From TrEMBL:
Gene symbol of the encoding locus: thrC
Superkingdom of the organism of origin: Archaea
Catalytic reaction(s) noted: O-phospho-L-homoserine + H2O = L-threonine + phosphate
Species this protein is from: Natronoglomus mannanivorans
One Pfam family named in its UniProt record: PALP
Name recorded for this polypeptide: Threonine synthase
Amino acid sequence: MSLSLSAERQEPPAEAADGAWLECIECGDTFGPFDAVRYTCDDCDGLLEVRYTDLPTFEDFSGSGVWRYNAALPLESGVTIQEGATPLYRVPRLEDDVGVEALRIKHEGMNPTGSFKDRGMTVGVAVARELGVDRLACASTGNTSAALAAYGSRAGMQTLVLLPAGKVAAGKVAQASLHGARILEVDGNFDACLDVVQDLAARGEAYLLNSLNPFRLEGQKTIGLEILEAFLADYDAVPDRIVLPVGNAGNTAALYKAFRELVQSGALAREDVPKLTGVQAEGAAPMVEAVENDADEVRRWDDVETRATAIRIGNPVNAPKALPGIRETGGTAVSVSDEEITDAQRDLAGEGIGVEPASAASLAGLRKLRAEGVVDSDERVVCLTTGHLLKDPDAAAAAGNDPEPVPAETEGVLEHLQG
Ligand code: F0G
C-alpha cells in the first residue's frame, strides 16, 4: 500500500518535473506537479500526494523556518512571512502533573498569523503563483482564512474566504478582514462551506487552498521535521508520541508523510516513528469514531458542535491519508469534552503558554489517555498547540479571571485588594 511506512522508494513517472510529481493515493495515477490546476485525481477523484525522486535526510537541511526544509518541498523558496521555527517549550510542572517522562509543547500559535496554517500557505500560495492563477479561495473555521488572506496579499493576489456564519472566532475574522480578503459568511457549517468552495474551484472561479490541496500539506510536514530535529538535539532520540488536535486531519496526514519520507530516505528507523495521536472534541469526533470502530472510512457527522470552533468539523476530508498514519504508527484517537478543553487551556496558560481552545485539545487528550493507561509514564511526548490565544479572545476571557472594577485612587484599590 502506498501510504505504508514500508513503502519503497519510487522511480519517477514520465510526468515528473524536477524529480517531483503528483500521485493518487487510491489508484496510483500520476500527474505533472504544475502542468494544470488539479486537487484530486482526474480518474477516480482520490486524494493526491506530492512524490519525489530524492528524499532528504537531516543533513540536507540548512537555514531556519519552513524553507530550511526545501529539500523536502516541491519548490526552492516561497511567498514567505518568516513562518516556522516555532518554540518547543518545556513545561516541567505540567510534565509532572500529567506523569510522563518528558512533555514538550510545540506552539504553532507563534507563526506570523498565529497558527500552523502559515506553513502550508507559504508553499501553497507559491504554487498558485507558479500555476499563474489570480484568485485564491478557501473554506475555513478561521485560521486558514487568516493565513490565506495574509499570504495572498503578500503575493499580490485576490483572496476569497467562505466562513460559517457566527462560528468563527473574532481574531480570525479580523485578520482576514484587514489583510483584504473578501469574506463570504455562509449560512451553514464548515463542511457546507467546503462543499461550495470546491464547486467554485471546479468551475475555475478560484484556486483552492484548503488542505485538500496537496501542496499545502507539504509545508505542514515541516512541523514534524522541526520537532524531530529539536528532539534529536535535546534527547538524542525522537519523541515516542505526538498528540495533535484533528479537524480535517490535514496536519495528521502531513506529519505522517514527513515521517514516511524520512523512513524511505533512511534518516529514521521505522520502529522509531512517533505514535500519531489525534484528539477531537466530543461534539465533532468522526475520526475518533472511525479509529474506535476500526473502520476504513469515516462517517460524515452532519451536526457538529464544540467551543473549539477551529475543529468544529464533521467531514475530515484528509481521513484517507490520516487514518493509515494513526494506525501504522501505533497511535490512536480520543475525544474530549469542552470542559476538558477549557481546563487544558488554563493549564497551558498557567505555564505562560496562550493557546486557543482547539489547541488545548491536544493536552486534554494526553491527560485522558495517560489516565486510561494508553500513554505510559516512560513516554516522551509532544503536544501540538495549533493556534494562539488571541485568535479567540472571547473564549480566553470566558475561561480566565474577570476584571474587577476599582476606583481611580490608591486607598480604594488597597481596600479592594484586602476585601
Ligand atoms: N487547530 C486549529 C487551531 C485549527 O485551526 C485547525 C483547523 C485544526 C487544529 C485542525 O487541523 O484540519 O489539519 O486536522 N482549522 C481549519 C481552518 C479547518 O479552516 O482554519 P486539521
